Amino acid sequence: MKLLSVNLGQAKTVSYTDHPEGLTGIDKQPVAGPVRVAAPGPKGVAGSGLAGDAVCHRRHHGGDDQAVYAMAREDLDEWENTLGRPLANGSFGENVTTQGLDVSGALIGERWRIGSTVVLEVTCGRIPCRTFQEHLGEKGWVKRFTERGAPGAYLRVIEPGEIRAGDPVEIVHRPDHDVTVALQFRAVTTDRTLLPRLLAAGRALHPESLQAARQYVEKYGR
Question: pTM (2 decimals)?
Answer without folding.
Answer: 0.94
